[in-house]
Design goal:
This protein has 340 residues and is α/β, with parallel strands linked by helices. Helices cover 39% and strands 15% of the residues. It has a domain of 198 residues: 3-Layer(aba) Sandwich (D-Maltodextrin-Binding Protein, domain 2), CATH 3.40.190.10. This is General L-amino acid transport system substrate-binding protein.
Length: 340
Amino acid sequence: MPFRRLLAAALAAAALLPAAARAQPAPDTLAAVRARGSLSCGVSTGVAGLSLADSQGRWSGLDADFCRAVAAAVLGDPEKVRFVPTTPQTRFTALQSGEVDLLSRNTTWSFARDTGIGLAFAGVLLHDGQGFIVKRALGVSSLKEMDGATICIQPGSTTELNLADWARANNFRFNPVLIEDFQEVQQAFFSGRCDSYTTDLSGLTSIRAGQGARRDEFVILPDVISREPLGPMVRKGDWRWFDVVKWTLNALVAAEEGGITAANAEARRGDPNPETGRLLGTSGEFGRQIGLERDWALRAIRATGNYGEMWERNQAPLGVQRGANRLARDGGLIWSPPFR
């Protein structure tokens, strides 16, 4: 074949590749979840207040409750969830491979994660920041007093990258101890293997509270070196499922904004407020637009309560202040787009 014809054939074949890729069927997670009759939800290996299993194997926490809210919206039953523990290093693979339908496990929304791994964040469930815990006996009051310290970190997390950036910018030296498992890295700190342990403030508050009578032996330093918007993730390309997850989160927030609770949600269906009617399914066809029943949001709210109720149940008992996680009208960063 003459060179020109060979080149033209090669270029034509190359031009077809993107079209072929686009021709691949998009995943239909909503249909798969319904056919299976349960939601597979990726969670952490155990962080109190976010996702933690008790001795009976029942999961609790803000992330776990969000999984239940989605199950209630889709399947009508918040208990139809299979919780799948994941580590910082296995969480994205579990979602990419389809092992889980939804990842709800204290994962920070970042540019690289939102654009480079075929996954998408559906919103912010918790605004957090990276902090440090030390033993009170160490006698330090700020991170900069700990130059040369040994610091426990979970690898494969933004925590590891944030500390490296902060150290470089502040000429700070440290010796990292990298341990993947959340329980093991805590134990390394409490046993004295590390001078400090760093993770999100919600996690630090949780593990400090878990020390019971010993909790005053430990101090969370005032240094917060990052912003960590934590939220649920789904696979890109499955946009109907993306909408289901995103708008379930919005519904929980909108319910708090409207004073709708688990206890009064059913009674509020007769509310004359048009926004309430659209949220709870008494007017409009919002459920149909995302492949769900009209009362999908009502089912989610009855299952877990609104966002504020979820917070009070899971975060408040640990002493975590809502801060940025207050509603926007109260000075926080939590708000929902309108149901219109």
